[in-house]
Design goal:
The structure is a single chain. This protein has one helix spanning 3-50, and strands at 57-61, 66-73, 78-85, 98-103, 106-111, 113-114, 125-129, 139-145, 148-150, 163-166, 182-187, 193-200, 207-212, 223-224, 229-235, 239-243, 264-265, 267-270, 288-296, 299-303, 306-308. It has 321 residues and is an alpha+beta fold.
Length: 321
């Protein structure tokens, strides 16, 4: 083999070796960069999207069309609510939002006061002041954005990634009891006290009520199964409706759980099979002021006033018995 041929072969081997070296090194570098950039950008964008602009907890509606930042100042007994759209841009609202808190004597309604912020934050920043906010009571806001109503929970601290998805907000579950109803304290002149949970369904206008010894509605306070419960409305009109057991057999609730305990129960409904008109109670924007009264023997019980807001069924899939 002549000298020229040797040189050509050597050159070809060198070129091949360099190609393999560059190829391996290039692929490794590209892979490392790709993995690093993807993870870093994804995490960075996610945090920027949901971190509170004012250091507060951010609650996101399930449909991601609304964000609510909540800043809590215990010393001032104040919560500030910032309303934003799905892109975290401030969204001014025309209707005054309300914060429904759960106090030791039942639900408390606190109306928001609009700040004097201008520009992009105009009508998007609202303040709520109440003595209960010196602590961290349970509660939910009621906010109307356009034609939609949202019920974000009052979160006091951001979670690990700076935001909290409102699992209930998009479906309208906004109560404070185990059945998503409004909880309120009742009492008797002899000093006996307890709690009721009252739930209004927006789609049919029907009411459910549970009576319990404790605020968590965990320990039933049973009455004779033929007892009648009166719910008296002051708003939207002065009237009263009567709740009674569904039946005297099982007295099942809407989850088919039996509530007849040896001829006693703590569960009552309206209108049931009475045929009474409940159409005026229908609608997701219903709001009523009510008190609940009932008797057990010679004892008469009366609740504090309750702001009754419906449990909404936006998907229309809930069927009532």
């Amino acid at each position: 083999m002549d000298t020229l041929t040797h040189r050509v072969l050597a050159l070809l081997v060198l070129v091949a070796a360099l190609g393999l070296l560059v190829g391996c090194g290039g692929d490794s570098h590209d892979d490392d960069d790709h993995g690093h950039d993807h993870d870093s950008d994804s995490s960075h964008d996610h945090d920027d999207d949901h971190a509170g602009k004012h250091g507060g907890a951010v609650v996101v509606s399930d449909d991601h069309k609304a964000h609510f930042e909540i800043v809590h100042d215990e010393d001032a007994r104040r919560v500030t609510l910032y309303v934003m759209d799905g892109d975290m841009a401030y969204r001014g609202i025309g209707d005054t939002p309300v914060l429904n808190l759960v106090g030791p004597d039942g639900s408390v309604k606190v109306e928001g006061t609009m700040s004097d912020a201008k520009g992009e934050m105009a009508a998007a920043e609202w303040h709520f002041v109440h003595d209960l906010l010196a602590g961290e009571p349970e509660g939910r806001f009621r906010v109307k954005i356009g034609g939609n109503s949202y019920m974000p929970k009052c979160a006091y601290e951001a979670d690990h990634d700076g935001h909290d998805h409102d699992e209930d907000g998009d479906h309208g579950h906004h109560g404070t009891g185990p059945h998503d109803g409004m909880v309120a304290k009742f009492s008797c002149p002899d000093g006996t006290t307890g709690f009721i949970e009252l739930k209004l369904h927006d789609d049919k206008g029907d009411l459910e009520l549970w009576i319990a010894e404790d605020e968590k509605i965990a320990t039933a306070m049973d009455l004779p199964i033929d007892s009648k419960i009166t719910v008296t409305f002051e708003k939207p009109k002065a009237t009263a409706v009567t709740l009674q057991a569904r039946n005297k057999d099982r007295n099942e609730d809407e989850d088919d759980k039996a509530n007849n305990r040896e001829g006693k129960t703590n569960y009552f409904i309206f209108p049931g099979e009475t045929g009474a008109d409940a159409s005026w109670l229908m609608g997701k924007d219903f709001e009523g002021h009510v008190t609940v009264t009932f008797s057990d023997g010679d004892k008469k019980f009366e609740s504090v006033e309750i702001e009754l807001i419906p449990h909404t069924h936006s998907d229309g899939g809930h069927e009532h018995k």
